[in-house]
Amino acid sequence: MAKLPILAYLLCTSTLVVAQGTTFTQTTRDRINFSGLAIPSNGTLFGIPGESGQVLGDTYMDTTWQAANVKFYGKIAGTTDSLAGIPVRLDMRANEIDVRVAANDIRAIKAQQVRHFIINNRLGGTSQFINVREYRGDADQLSGFFEA
User: Which residue has the higher pLDDT, 147 or 122?
Assistant: First the structure.
C-alpha cells in the first residue's frame, strides 16, 4: 500500500518535467554550439529579457533628396499622372514618398497612390521601385514597394 503514493508522486513529477521541457531545433543547437555555449542537460536556457525593439538610424531609404520620376495611379491636379525630375526620398516607416516642392515645402504622398518611381542613387545609376499592388496573389496582403 505504501508503494501506491510513491508511484503516484513519481508519475505526477515526471509529467510536469516533460510538460515544461522545451526542445531545440537543430539550427538553434548549432548556433549555441558554434558560439561556444553548451546546452544544459535539462534543455532550459535562462536569460535576461532585453530592451524592446527600436528603430536605429533613419526611416528613409536614403536621407538625401534624389531626383526621381514618379508615376501615379490617377491624375494629380486633374492634368497629369506623372512627375519628372522632382527631388524625393522614400520613408519606409510611414510608407510614403516625401516630395520637396520648395526649400521649406515638403509634401508626403501615400504609397497607395504611386504606381512606380525611378530614383537616382548614390552610385550614379537609377533604382526602380514598383508598388506591390502591381503584383497579385500573396502581394495583396503587403503594402509598399518592391525594388526592381
Answer: 147
